[in-house]
Design brief:
594 residues; mainly alpha; Clc chloride channel; two-stranded antiparallel ribbon; 63% helix; CIC family chloride channel protein; ion transport; chloride
């Protein structure tokens, strides 16, 4: 069977190389990738909705009691799948894609093509407070990566196809093709050129058409703008921008704070139990935290905050607008907590949609505060709900253009374009100057594995230290005599630097040819002077596995050295020369900019 399969593939390869140009083939693949990502998004949504509907109809417990039980059941099912079937630690969907782009040549494990389709619906369908966009993007990315490998596509083009998959997934979920393209550019640090623009456009169109085909004209937000922007409200949108910036900073810090809080719980079972109970309590107190939260957003957009809040322990006081404001603010605070707890407890999901839920609640709170302040001001609560979402997306994701165009597209027009720009830009500027990296990128940035729009930094990130380490240096021992060193090392070396190591191969220092030049012909010193006499420290060290290529380049700049030793756990591994490093950099830069 494999032999027959290989013959078929070879026939396809030959036909393709003969009849289809590389550029045309990439366009075809981008359409296919958009279609596959769209199908993944539709599948994720339908499986999740099926689970939610089944639980609502098939279980006889009261609604609030279910909130205590369901998250633990869902997380347990995910745990069992991961332990006995997946057998690998779960990684954050978008972060793992970014890592594959920078360090794994856009190769993604084939298991990721179906894993998220199973564990994400189990997490969300049973009440996990996360979104499905991240899993949809991860599934599409895995499909595109493996499709690229099947057709022997190079790593740079596979990276483009992965970005196409993300555009297709977002376009399918939100039916917003322009925002989908911008997301791929902002989040995956893609250069927006005509070479990349057309495949992204084709994938985005393919994704949205897939959504229309399977879901019809069904939209996530059934809302149209009835109150246009008024100049007199400008200051309030500035205020909302500041508020969403503060909320974005809180969201990011809370995420890493809760993740660190769960780290002492080494056993996945303990994390599952603690996280499941915590989510259950939060869901009992604040029901809208259940699942993704799209119905909550829709209810706020049509002005029905009672339905949006659902049944809570505070129903007796819901007629008081200040109680409503307090509950909505509680959603703003606890959505980030519930989302992160779900992920920390072992669940699978994304952060994009929880960000929108949190932003919608905050925008509605700000509007209600203005309208009930007693100062005679009146603003549109629906508009503030929408723009609050944009502010949180811009701040949390560091993606202001995605935020602006996404909200503009899902509302069916650009009537709120000016306030969207005001709020999103203010939120982004404040957040970016306070929090350098997003939830997606912080750990990658700390390890030097993050691709950015900065070409110099991106090229250094793509470089591999192993490719520039040189090992053709003659090693000397500190107990060797000068005569032994000259006979065994200097006479047989083409280099002018000699690493000094002990019997355990621990790096002790270096000797330069200039250090021994004046003693080389003094035969009286051959047997009386040892190598340790001439040994001195290297200008700096490169720590293998710890130093990123950016740090390596900086060490050369700061030390002024032409060669620096590479050590791992104190042991000598070789040298990196500045000339070889710069040659490798130029070569990678040419590949990157082709």
């Amino acid at each position: 069977m494999p032999i027959q399969r290989n013959k078929i593939l070879k026939s396809i390869y030959k036909w393709r190389y003969k009849h289809i140009s590389q550029k045309t083939f990439i366009y075809i693949l981008s359409v296919i990738v958009g279609l596959l990502a769209g199908l993944a998004s539709v599948t994720l949504k339908n499986i999740t909705y099926f689970i939610e509907a089944s639980l609502e109809k098939g279980i006889i417990f009261s609604s609030n009691q279910l909130y205590f039980i369901l998250p633990i059941i869902g997380l347990t099912l995910v745990y069992l799948y991961v332990k006995y079937i997946h057998k690998e630690k779960l990684k954050h969907a978008v972060s793992s894609i970014l890592f594959s782009l920078s360090r794994n040549k856009a190769n993604i494990d084939a298991k990721q093509m179906y894993t998220q389709l199973i564990i994400a619906p189990l997490t969300v369908g049973f009440g996990g407070s996360v979104g499905l966009l991240g899993p949809a993007v991860a599934t599409g990315a895995a499909l595109s990566s493996n499709l690229g490998k099947l057709f022997h596509i190079n790593s740079k083009t596979r990276s483009l196809l992965i970005a196409c998959a993300s555009a297709g997934a977002i376009s399918s979920i939100f039916q917003s093709p322009i925002a989908a393209i911008i997301f791929a550019v902002e989040v995956f640090s893609l250069d927006l050129t005509m070479i990349s623009m057309l495949p992204l456009l084709l994938a985005s169109i393919s994704g949205v058409l897939t959504s229309y085909f399977f879901m019809g004209n069904e939209v996530l937000f059934n809302f149209s703008i009835s109150e246009p922007f008024e100049v007199k409200d400008t200051l309030f949108y500035v205020l909302l921008g500041v508020g969403t910036a503060v909320a974005s900073i809180y969201f990011t810090k809370m995420y890493f704070g809760i993740i660190n809080l769960f780290k002492p719980l080494k056993s996945p079972k303990y994390r599952l139990l603690v996280g499941g109970l915590a989510i259950g309590i939060m869901l009992y107190m604040i029901p809208p935290l259940y699942g993704e939260g799209f119905s909550f957003i829709n209810d706020l957009l049509i002005g029905d905050h009672i339905k949006a809040l659902g049944k809570t322990p505070f129903d007796a006081y819901i007629a008081n607008i200040w109680v409503v404001i307090a509950l909505l603010f509680g959603i703003t605070i606890f959505k980030a907590v519930a989302m992160t707890t779900t992920l920390a407890a072992g669940g699978a999901g994304g952060i994009f949609i929880p960000t929108m839920v949190m932003g919608s609640a905050l925008g509605n709170v700000v509007a209600k505060l203005i309208n009930n302040s007693g100062l005679g001001f009146s603003v549109s609560e629906s508009n503030f709900t929408l723009i609050g979402m944009a502010g949180l997306i811009a701040g949390v994701q560091h993606a202001p253009l995605t935020a602006i165009f996404l909200i503009a597209e899902i509302t069916g027009g650009y009537a709120l374009f000016v306030p969207l720009m005001i709020t999103a830009s203010i939120s982004y500027i404040i957040t970016k100057n306070t929090v350098d990296y997003t939830i997606y990128t912080r750990e990658l940035a700390e390890s030097g594995d993050l691709l950015t729009h900065n070409k110099d930094q991106a090229v250094l990130t793509l470089m591999d230290l192993d490719t520039v380490i040189e090992t053709n240096f003659k090693i000397v021992n500190p107990e060797m005599t000068l005569g032994e060193m000259l006979h065994d090392s200097v006479a047989k070396s083409t280099r002018n630097i000699f690493p000094v190591v002990d019997a355990n191969h621990m790096f002790l220092g270096i000797i330069l040819l200039d250090d021994i030049r004046e003693f080389m012909f003094d035969t009286k010193l051959y047997n009386t002077t040892k190598v340790e006499t001439f040994t001195h420290k290297a200008p700096d060290h490169i720590y293998y596995g710890l130093d990123s290529m950016q740090i390596v380049m900086q060490k050369f700049q700061d030390s002024g050295a032409w060669n620096l030793p590479v050590v791992k756990n104190g042991k000598y591994m070789g040298f990196v020369s500045k000339s070889k490093l710069l040659t490798a950099y130029r070569r990678e830069l040419i590949k990157f900019t082709k």
